[in-house]
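Anyone up for a design puzzle?
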């Protein structure tokens, strides 16, 4: 498991603040409620879904798109941190348990998700 650079917390407000800090640094990001949870978009397409104990599943997590094959690899490598989320998991998205991941690794996953969804002209603006 990655070394944590923050105090692990299951406080949803602290976790969504953490997600907002990372996402709002990426060009073209907007946030709105979708299915009752904060959701982040680029070019009107979802790239991060916050999940606060969705249907009492016990996770304070984000659901994000991932490159092909990454979902299975991450879950096999670290099943405490990563899981197959409902609905979008069949499309290769990964669930990330926020209390078990450091800020650096989380930001890397979010950047990858953004790059998978953002249009080419926005991706070119981030080096």
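Challenge accepted. My sequence:
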């Amino acid at each position: 498991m990655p070394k944590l650079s923050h105090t692990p917390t299951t406080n949803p407000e602290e976790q969504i603040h953490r997600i907002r800090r990372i996402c709002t640094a990426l060009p073209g990001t907007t946030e709105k409620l979708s299915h009752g949870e904060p959701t982040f978009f680029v070019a009107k397409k979802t790239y991060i879904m916050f999940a606060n104990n969705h249907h009492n599943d016990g996770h304070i997590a984000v659901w994000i798109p991932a490159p092909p094959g990454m979902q299975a690899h991450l879950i096999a490598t670290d099943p405490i941190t990563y899981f197959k989320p409902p609905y979008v998991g069949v499309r290769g998205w990964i669930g990330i348990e926020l209390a078990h991941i450091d800020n650096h690794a989380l930001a890397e996953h979010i950047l990858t998700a953004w790059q998978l969804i953002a249009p080419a002209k926005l991706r070119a603006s981030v080096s």
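A detail worth pointing out: The helical segments are 12-23, 70-77, 103-117, 120-124.
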